[in-house]
């Protein structure tokens, strides 16, 4: 796919979600969340930094939050181009999308699940990302600030980086949508237009999008770090009590399903790598998929503190 096509697809997905008329509190609040993110991107970010000349990079690690933000970012990128093209003196059909790939940074921090690594590579192709991958150190986990310092050295035009952090993430509570990095970090603007999203918003939009999502979420993970500090979420363990699925409508009416809303009701998860299959063999089907969890307070309960 070309970047222009990927951006147009994301625009169509987003528009389609915004047009859903359902008596669902989750969908209504997600539509509100999308509108605010779009406002940040189109009215506050793209007017200060051009998304088309390398000033903005996107931080991406294949996680659900940055994937949601990537879909919205590409959607706004399409809209930004479309509006510019319409205002131009030349006919729209003679305008070509001015970017081939989206500048993206992935800090390969620690030993990563091959399923996630494969997913990052596959989606880099799908969304036309120009992926900078930091060098992983053999023994110790990479220091994030140092890794970004290295990135800025190689891409000195970078003025701002888009980050899919939310208020409910650790240290996320007091963050602002646009803010400068702390003094012990390399100097750039942090663009954080997803802060106000909660877990239900993330699952609702992502499942509706019908885009492939990282297979680890299908195995009970709700937040993914390195292999040594991430497990399926214990709150999703299948025991005596059933956990209800809150996103049945989104899954069965996912983007691209037919007009009657008929869809095979299968979530589009990426394949689990052979190594991870082995790793998970003990507890293969013992957990509900990640999207059964809607409580932000326990989203990271599967993360082991080092
Ligand atoms: P999940 O919580 O399910 O793992 P996520 O990885 O998108 O989803 P966080 O782990 O909360 O979310 O990280 C917040 C954001 O920080 C990401 O969305 C991404 O923009 C950025 N980020 C985190 N880790 C990395 C990394 N290793 N490389 C690049 N960006 C990262």
Automatic annotation (TrEMBL):
Pathway: Cofactor biosynthesis; FAD biosynthesis; FAD from FMN: step 1/1
Gene3D superfamilies tied to this protein: HUPs
SUPFAM superfamilies in the record: Adenine nucleotide alpha hydrolases-like
Keyword ATP-binding: yes
Record EC number: 2.7.7.2
Pfam families: PAPS_reduct
Keyword Protein biosynthesis: no
Phosphoadenosine phosphosulphate reductase domain location: 56-231
Annotated catalysed reactions: FMN + ATP + H(+) = FAD + diphosphate
UniProt keyword terms in alphabetical order: ATP-binding, FAD, Flavoprotein, FMN, Nucleotide-binding, Nucleotidyltransferase, Transferase
CDD domains, per the entry: FAD_synthase (cd23948)
EC top class, as a word: transferase
Protein name, as recorded: FAD synthase
Organism: Saccharomyces uvarum (Yeast)
Originating gene: SUVZ04G1970
